[in-house]
Amino acid sequence: xxxxxxxxxxxxxxxxxxxxxxxxxxxxxxxxxxxxxxxxxxxxxxxxxxxxxxxxxxxxxxxxxxxxxxxxxxxxxxxxxxxxxxxxxxxxxxxxxxxxxxxxxxxxxxxxxxxxxxxxxxxxxxxxxxxxxxxxxxxxxxxxxxxxxxxxxxxxxxxxxxxxxxxxxxxxxxxxxxxxxxxxxxxxxxxxxx
Length: 194
Fold this sequence. Notes:
alpha+beta; eight-stranded mixed beta sheet; two-stranded antiparallel sheet; 4 helices
């Protein structure tokens, strides 16, 4: 499991490593830390999402952290041809997109829908690992939504429903995060474990 990161560590990492980051502006930010372990072991919730809010002063303030995954699950890695002949989408790490997600629905329940392109790769090698392979795609919306795990999901296993989405596995943490968001736009960054 990932260690706990300080606010200062995450803020500095976003400012230094997140491609596309253009400064802190008023809004809400999800800073996902992708565990090295999650890239090597399929179908585990090994990542963390740190949520920050920035007010008019331009200073990010930590609000909450949740566990989840920022990687594609094994089902999508093996069955990607239902979506694309090139491979399963894997969101790229060390990237930032301002106001990338907006309040909406995912499979009939409240969630945050992708509204702008987020850089991603296509993994088509069928080796059961979500990898950043080949060409970086930057101009497509692939419905990589922010949503919760199934209500009865365990805290460890993803099963067959994560296809490039940003998924929180705790139902109660998800509910708290969604209430906090209040339908505001969401900016997202994904960082590699550091």
